[in-house]
Amino acid sequence: MSNLPDTGNTFSNPVIPGFHPDPSICRVGDDYYLACSSFEYFPGVPLFHSRDLVHWTQIGNALDRPSQLHLPRETPASGGIYAPTLRHHDGRFWLIVTNVSGDGNLLFTATDPAGPWSEPVRLPGVHGIDPDLAWDDDGTCWCTTAGVAQIRIDPHTGETLGTSHRLWSGTPGAKAPEAPHLHRIGDHWYLLIAEGGTERCHGVSIARGPTPTGPFEPCPANPILTHRGTDHPIQNTGHADLVQGPDGSWWMVLLGVRPGGGTPGWHVLGRETYLAPVTWTDGWPVVGEVSLTMPAPAWPLLPPAIAPEVRDDFDTSELAPHWVSLRHRSAEDCTTKERPGWLTLRARGGSLDEPDVTFVGRRQQHVACRVRTLLDAADGHGGLAVRLDEQHHYSVEVSSGQVRVRARIGPLSTIVASRPAPAGPVVLRAETEVVRAAHGPLAGPDTVTLGCEEPDGTFTALASLDGRYLSTEVAGGFTGRVLGMYASADSAHFDWFDYEPLDD
Ligand code: 6LW
């Protein structure tokens, strides 16, 4: 254990913006790896790599085949894949997750975290979400779940050995003790948990004991992290994991949200991944407030040599790992091979209101951003969507010679604006703009403007809509906005897609 030297340098939070909750982290030599939840999206469990803990690059998705990730049509929004634990043990990477919409707890291994990951090992005897994996010195593997309960497992077969026992119920009076992670640090085993629920009361607490099975003594300073009851710009802080740097310093990754639009605020990007330094007092970890700017690690920061490209031209046969679909994706309904240099989507369900709409999107990662796509709808209907779930989305669609903006807000669905489509392929555009001044109860966190471009490139805005209705506070659930392309009848062809952060 060591406390942090102050280098005077800082880094910006969130370190992985956009809907990337429930981070779990491990370090192997100079490399850090991190996994997040993915819910109803396919492929699942995005995996990130970093060499400095601050700058992260997505290197893949652990669950990228139907045999690993089965999300039936009935999978509700925010169902599917919950809360991974990622560990490196015995020369391999181990990943354990819960598919709450079918297969329960599942374990995967890989020698390279970029993949391929193994077929799933099922754990029918492990009940409860948020499974953690920890190995004792003698190789005993403990699986600890929300509650907080623990059972010994054979991680190779998924067999449970013995019976489940309760480890800790968290702080008396606090709800939802969950997200356990067990770490051996010095002479103690530390049991890190989240408490209070994943909304404004969320927090992180910790207990320690002499063995991985306890008995556990709670930290007198619990919760060691919470922003509850504050007007801090980052809220809902919780669901954390710990990692040690090569210099002995300790770091916490956790989820948090950035509500906008006044009090209580609406967050639209989902739960994002934050990083915070950890110091130690009397053998207990201390985490102060998690801020948008924080003291940097003592080692050199290594921003990526090449800034992320604004445009994806769909010139490669495989889609980049940040593109996600809903519940499944098949080569028949999503391909760059039919018309080289174009992404072709073939409608399999109906509209964005349906769970099996053919959709390819990416997480909104900046509060203010612009997305554009060139759509050829000569063979069908398709469009550009700002999506939270099946019941909360805005879209601009080309169908039957018209460009239409539609808003779906809970039980209400309406065409907000329409006009004749320009001839030939059409550039569709959506952009979000932060609402600066609070205008009483009507202030949204942002506005979402949708429209199309004229042949000369000028933008015609068809509608500017209140972003609150595409926020988690309105829609509920565990995800955030995803921006993407879809086909609603026959085939829609997309030549390119731009994602451009704007100054907020
Ligand atoms: C996850 C639970 C939680 O399983 O939300 O914030 C649930 N924490 O630990 C879904 O992400």
UniProtKB/TrEMBL annotation:
Check the record and name the CDD domains matching this protein. Answer: GH43_XynB-like (cd18617)
Do you know which InterPro entries this protein is assigned to? Answer: ConA-like_dom_sf, GH43_C2, Glyco_hydro_43, Glyco_hydro_beta-prop_sf, Glycosyl_Hydrlase_43
Using the record's annotation, list all stretches that form the Beta-xylosidase C-terminal Concanavalin A-like domain: 311-500
Q: Which SUPFAM superfamilies match?
A: Arabinanase/levansucrase/invertase (SSF75005), Concanavalin A-like lectins/glucanases (SSF49899)
Q: Which GO molecular-function terms appear in the entry?
A: hydrolase activity
Query: What are the UniProt keywords, alphabetically?
Result: Glycosidase, Hydrolase
What family does the Swiss-Prot or TrEMBL record give for this protein? Belongs to the glycosyl hydrolase 43 family.
**This chain belongs to which protein, by name?**
Glycoside hydrolase family 43 protein
> Can you name the source organism?
Streptomyces neyagawaensis
Question: What is this organism's lineage?
Answer: Bacteria, Bacillati, Actinomycetota, Actinomycetes, Kitasatosporales
